[in-house]
Design a protein that fits this description.
The structure holds two protein chains of two kinds. Chain A is an alpha/beta fold. Chain A is built from 20 helices and ten strands. In chain B, the strands form three sheets. In chain B, strands 6-9-10-3-11-12 form a six-stranded mixed beta sheet, with helices on both faces. Chain B has a four-stranded antiparallel beta sheet with strand order 2-1-4-5, with helices on one face. The chains are: A alpha/beta, B alpha/beta. Chains A and B meet through α2, α3, α4, α5 and α7 of A and α1, α3, α4, α5 and α6 of B.
């Protein structure tokens, strides 16, 4: 067994039916935020030291073989062809040998280094994912998921590219010095003549990139803008056609296309100004080698092989100069990217399991809010001293105006947020003392916005209990009055829905979300405005099924509709962040003027 | 830390959120560390003239071929070709000059030859650089002009196509016509044709020089490199295409899985799915890693393999050529030229093989684009169609039948007359044909039988623009465009003054939203309006219709999917909107329906009942029972 894998412990409340085909990362990034970005990445970079060392060694051998080849050619020409003092064959075998060594070693190091960088990327992706998914709701309230995705995409990619590139750059720089050393042993002055123009390649390269890099981002953003316009014109085609806005959309596209054309031409022009000179600069060295080297040969200082060797070296030597500017720019970007990634990783997780968490098994469903105070931000309290008790098996409707804190109670119950003061208790335990998986297994919540995943309806319902059989899923769907419409879909339960699947109406989505919660069969069920888009008739059937099937389950219903409210055994009226009245629908109507007022408000809505 | 802070936040990159077409990955936005330089570049951009392209509802119907597409630019293309020839010849002069320097200068001890050769070398460098720069500038201009023309042509045609073209998953594929297919053509032109010319010419020039120097050694050189390089590159092309295709698919999987986990985080958490999803995500990442490792393997074979081949080929040429030198059949200078030309063989072969791929993709793109451009709109404007004069707003369905494709009739022999200014509500079960009636009135489809008339005019005889500009359709899903609230409300009338836009917002009750948003009308709505509630989005769609001031309004379940509070706001908006207009309201809620002047119950492809609310309740049939169920729940017991 290797070192311990970086993986979170799971509990029996979080069943895992999928087999992990890949290991978890071995090391985490360095948690010390005071360190530099490279130092913080080092633990995962050095996670596989043997591969790294072997790859670097192979790279060294390959580099030397490459640099030695022109020198061998030079010897072959001078000794075997000009002086004719040595047989040609031995040089040819040497060259062929160098080719083979160069080839095999380069294959080994190229694969080794790239594979390492890709593995580091995969590790980073897992670490970022784990850290994100551990975050509490307050984090996701603040941060847009699109921005997190872009960090997970381009930022990780830019770090990966640097990691793959850095060793190659190092080898390339080293090869420059080795090659210059070879050249210096042949002739110092000729070496100077050969490489004098090379720094220009670097300077021009940096200048070219400085021009092109911002431009290429402009091209990207304009391409994206154009794609967005096309996307909107296709998805919003009904609106475009309804308002006969084709000419207007075409004008918009024409403007974007013109802007995109300008930026593309600007990129080409920037390239045209520098790239041809950049590519020709090393050839200035070749011309000088020919002149000065040729003169040296006529003077008898050198032999003609040197000219051949130098010609090869000049071509070889321009590579590090070309790469260096690119590398520095990449490093700059990777640093910014790494810092953005660390920002995600360093974000503190607000809601975690207490160290000695109590595992709650088979909850009875006794709920208590003790003088709870809570606000989503500091300025603005939603609940102020809210006290409420719900007995096991009771069905309670929470009624109140918008913003009175109805949904907040549901969220505190499942500990999506922690109270600012007071306590929320389940079966007498403060929810903050319970293990989160066991708490959330006990409390099932159907949220007001029914989110479906891009998978089959079966998997969407079985989301709460992966591995549930089709019969169990169907039973849950029947109780949620979803079975019939699901069966009517082209692929029934195997129909793919969600963002990229077929579209369902709001009411159908809500019914699937309810089926999802019912399948888990939690001791406490909270319906948070979960039937808002469902027809009154269908809603009645669902609530009937709930009542039939769930004797003993504590149910909290947050609803706007009288029909829903009327079905609850007890109604709790929330106002100003606290419970102001509690009783049956009839009692409250008779005794509590504020209740009638809130209902009147609902009636007006209807 | 800058989380969530709008300014100075690391998230506040401009342009974030738009979808990048090519890989289906989100465009991450310009990195903040580059923002300043980007601004600097943008400052140099000239003001582009206003576009002068007309949208033609009738298709000109020309075929789309590569030749036809390039023909208008023949002269410029010929100029580019001349530049390519100059560039290539200048580039390949180097080894030949080296040969002259060695054989004539060094061997003869003539330094004046050396100086002349060096000068010629520098001259060839200058020629190559100048011709190269000019060629880059010329081909980019031709290519970008072609791309712009093509974008406009394809987009015009997309807009010309009828609604039936835009159903379901087809939309996604249509999108690729405008993005990846046009990109493929751009690549074919910019990289493909130009590099075909450059690399092809390079190979021809080098081969010609080599054979002119010495046919035997030329044969050996070509034989030592070309077959092996072609085979290796051919293999690489196929293998790397597959491997990178798989990397692209899998990174898209990784990101969409991440995206779903983040968007659905509340459900994931509430369902105790974190452990399961973590394992799933690890597997998805692992599959992406495997695909990456495959590319690493392929790259590790190809790059070093061709380098090794280069060194070995050098040994072969040196061996054969060396013996020829020893036998006096070849000069040292000629051998040097061969050794130097050897390396020049690699790039053209590599690129030409790649080019085959580019060419195939370009061909496929051309075929797909041609196919799209040849697709006629099913609802076509008749040539010489008349302009519909301002209408009063009477609508007449005269024995109208309709079916979508082969699926059988949705409407059968429907006759309905709506008087100017009347509001009629269509109610009935899903799939009964309510929305179809709405679509026929807007001429999104043509009836298979019968006629739809507005003010007595068959709507097939008038121009689509004149018909639809007098008609406002508010669809079920309120679609928001990327842009500000103002852009969205003023969609139909982009030049509408602020006062009108504000009036429209006020009329539908959007003022609370405008007050809530920091920038009012100038607030950007993000990601298809994710920052607005469903009700607010629907109100925005109504404000859009209000501002367009159509004579006839069609509301297709514009009030479904809303919570009751939003619905109440919308009912009020509707009152403002319907005032004095002819309206067809497809109602999900009976609360909406009962406000209409008349109600039509649609069932089984026809009108089952028709009358006022009171009449239908009194009749005691379908509507009456629907209403009774609804009312029982709506009123407190």
């Amino acid at each position: 067994m290797g070192p311990a894998l970086l993986d979170e412990p799971t509990s029996r409340f979080e069943p895992v039916v999928e087999v992990a085909r890949y290991p978890a990362p071995i090391h985490d990034v360095d948690p010390d935020a005071a360190k530099g970005w490279i130092a913080r990445l080092l633990p995962i970079v050095l996670a596989r030291p043997a591969v790294l060392a072997a790859s670097l060694a192979a790279a060294l051998v390959a580099m030397v073989a490459n640099v030695a080849a022109p020198a061998v050619t030079q010897q072959a020409i001078d000794r075997a062809l000009v002086e004719q003092t040595e047989p040609l064959a031995q040089y040819l075998w040497m060259l062929a040998g160098l080719g083979v060594v160069r080839g095999t070693m380069a294959m080994a190091y190229r694969y080794g280094l790239f594979a390492l960088a890709y593995r580091i990327e995969a590790d980073l992706r897992q670490i970022v994912y784990q850290r994100l998914m551990a975050q509490s709701f307050s984090f996701f309230d603040r941060v847009q998921s699109g921005q997190l995705i872009s960090r997970a995409n381009s930022d990780i990619r830019s770090v990966q590219m640097l990691l793959a590139f850095a060793p190659l750059m190092a080898i390339s720089l080293l090869s420059f010095f080795v090659a210059v050393a070879f050249m210096l042993t042949i002739h110092v002055g000729l070496t100077v003549a050969a490489i004098v123009a090379l720094p220009g390649v670097y300077v021009l390269g940096v200048g070219l990139r400085n021009q092109i890099f911002p431009l290429s981002w402009i091209v990207q953003s304009r391409t994206a803008e154009l794609a967005t316009l096309v996307d909107e014109s296709i998805n919003g085609v009904r609106v475009v056609k309804s308002f006969a806005a084709e000419q207007q959309q075409l004008d918009r596209l024409a403007r974007l296309a013109r802007r995109l054309r300008w930026s593309n031409v600007a990129v080409a022009d920037a390239r045209a100004r520098r790239a041809p000179i950049m590519e020709n600069l090393p050839r200035v060295g070749l011309a000088l080698v020919l002149l000065y080297g040729g003169w040296l040969v006529t003077e008898g200082v050198l032999q003609v092989g040197a000219i051949v060797a130098f010609s090869a070296y000049v071509v070889m030597l321009q590579t590090p100069f070309r790469l260096l500017g690119f590398f520095l720019m990449m490093a700059q970007r990777a640093k910014a990217s790494a810092e953005r990634i660390f920002e995600v990783l360093d974000e503190e997780v607000a809601i975690t399991d207490p160290p000695d968490a109590l595992v709650l098994d088979g909850a009875a469903g006794d709920i208590a809010l003790d003088d709870v105070t809570f606000g989503y931000d500091d300025d603005h309290l939603v609940l102020r001293g809210c006290t409420l008790h719900v007995s096991p098996g009771e069905t309670v409707a929470i009624v109140g105006r918008t913003g009175s804190g109805k949904s907040t109670i549901a969220r505190l119950l499942a500990r999506f947020y922690d109270v600012d003061a007071g306590a929320v208790r389940l079966d007498g335990h403060d929810v903050r003392a319970l293990s989160l998986p066991s708490l959330r297994a006990a409390v099932g919540i159907v949220l007001d916005e029914p989110f479906l995943f891009s998978t089959t309806i079966h998997d969407n319902i079985a989301f709460s209990r992966p591995g549930a059989t089709r019969a169990e899923v169907e039973a849950a769907a029947r109780d949620a009055v979803a079975h019939d419409f699901i069966e009517a879909l082209p692929d029934g339960y195997d129909t793919v829905v969600g963002e990229r699947g077929s579209t369902l109406s709001g009411g159908q989505r809500q019914r699937i979300a309810i089926a999802r919660a019912l399948l888990a069969s939690p001791p406490v069920l909270v319906l948070d405005d979960a039937t808002s888009a469902i027809d009154a008739e269908v809603e009645e059937q669902i609530l009937d099924a709930l009542a039939r099937r769930s004797s003993g389950r504590t149910t909290i219903v947050i609803a706007h509709r009288l029909s829903t409210i009327a079905l609850a055994g007890r109604v709790v009226l929330l106002d100003g962040g606290a419970v102001v009245a509690s009783g049956t629908h009839r009692d409250l109507l008779a005794s509590e003027p504020r209740y009638a007022e809130v209902l009147a408000h609902l009636e007006e809505d209807i | 830390m800058g989380w969530g802070a709008p300014a100075g936040s690391p998230f506040a990159g401009p342009g974030a959120g738009a979808a990048s077409a090519a890989a289906g990955l989100p465009f991450a936005g310009i990195p903040p560390e580059l923002a300043e330089r980007v601004q600097g570049v943008l400052a140099t951009e000239p003001v582009h003239p206003d576009p002068a392209v007309r949208f033609e509802a009738v298709d000109p119907g020309e075929r789309f071929t590569l030749r036809g597409y390039l023909r208008p630019h023949r002269a410029a293309l010929l100029g580019a070709l001349v530049l390519v020839v100059v560039e290539t010849v200048a580039m390949q002069a180097g080894p030949l000059l080296t040969k002259i320097a060695i054989d004539r200068g060094i061997a003869m001890g003539d330094t004046s030859i050396l100086v002349a050769v060096c000068a010629a070398y520098l001259g060839s460098i200058l020629c190559n650089a100048l011709a190269g720069a000019a060629r880059l500038a010329v081909t980019a201009r031709i290519g970008e002009q072609l791309m712009e023309e093509l974008r406009l042509r394809v987009f015009s045609h997309l807009q010309r196509l009828s609604m039936d073209f835009y159903t379901g998953e087809r939309a996604g594929r249509l999108m690729t016509r405008m993005t990846s297919d046009i990109d493929a053509l751009s690549v074919l032109f910019q990289d493909g044709l130009v590099s075909l010319a450059v690399q092809g010419l390079t190979l021809v020039v080098i081969t010609a020089i080599l054979f002119q120097l010495d046919p035997t050694l030329a044969t050996v050189t070509v034989a030592a490199i070309v077959p092996a390089m072609v085979v290796l590159t051919w293999w690489f092309r196929g293998a790397s295409d597959r491997a990178y295709g798989s990397v692209r698919d899998r990174i898209a999987e990784v990101l969409s899985d991440l995206q779903e986990n983040l968007s659905g985080i509340r459900v994931v958490t509430a369902s105790n799915r974190r452990a399961q999803n973590r394992v799933h995500h690890r597997n998805v990442i692992g599959d992406h890693l495997d695909a990456n490792l495959t590319t690493a393997r392929i790259g590790a074979v190809y790059g070093p393999g061709s380098e090794a081949l280069g060194i070995v080929a050098q040994a072969v040429v040196l061996g054969v050529g060396g013996h020829m030198v020893l036998r006096g059949e070849l000069t040292i200078g000629e051998l040097t030229a061969f050794v130097l030309y050897l390396t020049a063989f690699f790039a053209p072969i590599q690129q030409l093989v790649q080019l085959y791929n580019t060419y195939q993709q370009g061909r496929a793109a051309i075929a797909k684009l041609d196919d799209l451009l040849q697709t006629p709109p099913t609802v076509a404007e008749r040539p010489g169609a008349a302009v519909l004069p301002p209408v009063e707003g009477s609508i007449e369905l005269d024995h109208v039948s309709f079916g979508y494709g082969q699926a059988g009739e949705v409407l059968h022999d429907v006759t309905l007359h709506v008087a100017p200014g009347e509001t009629i509500a269509l109610v009935g079960p899903t799939g009964a044909g309510k929305s179809t009636i709405a679509k026929l009135i807007g001429r999104f489809y043509d009836p298979t039988g019968g006629t739809v008339r507005i003010d007595g005019v068959d709507i097939r005889t008038v121009t689509l623009a004149s018909l639809r500009s007098q008609l406002g359709v508010v669809p079920q899903e309120a679609f928001l465009f990327h842009g500000t609230i103002r852009d969205n409300v003023a969609f139909a009338r982009p030049d509408a003054p602020d006062a009108d836009v504000l009036e429209a917002c006020a009329a539908v009750g959007l003022e609370p939203l405008l007050r809530r948003l920091p920038d009012g009308l100038d607030s950007t709505v993000h990601e298809r309006g994710a920052s607005l509630s469903a009700g607010e989005r629907q109100l925005l769609a109504l404000a859009r219709a209000f501002l367009a001031r159509p004579r006839v309004l069609v509301l297709d379940e514009a009030t479904s999917n809303l919570d009751l509070r939003s619905e109440a706001a919308i009912e009020q908006a509707l009152d403002a909107l319907l005032e004095g207009r002819t309206a067809i309201v497809i109602a999900h809620r009976l609360a909406t329906a009962r406000r209409a002047d008349r109600i039509a119950v649609i069932d089984g492809g026809g009108i089952a009942e028709l009358g006022t609310h009171d009449e239908l309740v009194a009749a005691g049939a379908r509507y009456a029972s629907l209403y009774a169920t609804w009312a029982r729940h709506a009123e407190p017991s």
